[in-house]
Amino acid sequence: xxxxxxxxxxxxxxxxxxxxxxxxxxxxxxxxxxxxxxxxxxxxxxxxxxxxxxxxxxxxxxxxxxxxxxxxxxxxxxxxxxxxxxxxxxxxxxxxxxxxxxxxxxxxxxxxxxxxxxxxxxxxxxxxxxxxxxxxxxxxxxxxxxxxxxxxxxxxxxxxxxxxxxxxxxxxxxxxxxxxxxxxxxxxxxxxxxxxxxxxxxxxxxxxxxxxxxxxxxxxxxxxxxxxxxxxxxxxxxxxxxxxxxxxxxxxxxxxxxxxxxxxxxxxxxxxxxxxxxxxxxxxxxxxxxxxxxxxxxxxxxxxxxxxxxxxxxxxxxxxxxxxxxxxxxxxxxxxxxxxxxxxxxxxxxxxxxxxxxxxxxxxxxxxxxxxxxxxxxxxxxxxxxxxxxxxxxxxxxxxxxxxxxxxxxxxxxxxxxxxxxxxxxxxxxxxxxxxxxxxxxxxxxxxxxxxxxxxxxxxxxxxxxxxxxxxxxxxxxxxxxxxxxxxxxxxxx
Length: 494
Hints:
- The protein contains 22 helices and 9 strands.
- By secondary structure, it is α+β, with helices and mostly antiparallel strands.
- It has 3 domains: 2-47, no CATH class; 64-134 and 392-484, no CATH class; 139-386, CATH 1.10.630.10.
- The strands form 3 sheets. A 5-stranded mixed beta sheet has the order 1-2-7-4-3. It has a two-stranded antiparallel sheet with strand order 5-6. A two-stranded antiparallel ribbon has the order 8-9.
- A hairpin with a 2-residue loop joins strand 1 (102-107) and strand 2.
- The protein is globular and about 90 Å long.
- 33% of the residues are buried.
């Protein structure tokens, strides 16, 4: 009876409300909401803009209504260029070909700010670090497979992860080159001695997978060991490659690709988690022996065993090891592949590099010797400049903030960045600025590093609090004073 009375009352009320009345009421509510916003958030933003002297940032000239509303024109260019393997160079020529260094561009339902201005990058990553976060795209894309670790987390969770794993990346731990020697020899065994063509890139990816899994898990995948191939390890390597490639597609499509059916991705993701979890469970089961040092006498340093000293949570152990594997495997392999790509085309560079190596007299170098090899460092630095292993990155403004440059016709004024705005910095494009690296900035020239002392314009391993945890710990001088070096080593945790 009660329900019937309510239904009758609702029917009576709506019967006496006209459609124009509903629209009028909605319009009034919208007007009130807008007035409230202008008096609160809008007023605060106008004050922030005035106090900082902010001026508008240049907008990309999108074509057509679909381009202006959703950025369809540039999205189409992005997809086409990605298929052809020229995405970053296309974006550089499109976004920064007219000497602008900061622009605003439309992508789906929001505006992005893209910058190659070092002072802006410094603000995002360092001086205004607390005004930005990773945003939810990385977490939503990667956490289902890699868990909540240093590479996928933010805020307090990230601080906890970094504090927990940082002791594992001291020079004592990462400087033992003998750990990697046998994996290198396994790779060399796959290179033909009769001059046949070989795909070094594939071998480099297997090399870094084998060495990284031994360092992290205490068990190598050993994909390069002839006659001892482990089907499970090979499956793990292939699954890891496929899943990370699909994740890259997720980033390019703002996760729209997740709606495409992909059973292989689901199966491979589950296999990655299970493979890592089995190793973690075994380590937990043998924890007492590990603590006594029995296992350490048999094996070299193991990242997972060090984590056992601070946590016994299986999910945390799996997440952190997979996160470090994600950061260390592809980046190191990419650096090697890019470097040899240049060496194959530059016999002059190869000759100088070989001459420096021959000074070792056939003896394998230790960590300190490697650091003293000047031309080796120049070559690697130049490879990271022209083809940075992390060519671009994005942060999300979590509060209204200001960046120091990019506003006005001359781009010399500060710009206002509203809360929720993604700020992308293109390391690829910044590394090619001729005003920083000379008129020959597009040329592979290791010798430029004899006098070059860059600051935030050279950023192969990120900067600020989230700077690569596996970078070299040595000090170099830059124009901005003394700061930690960005010398290329094992990992790029950003």
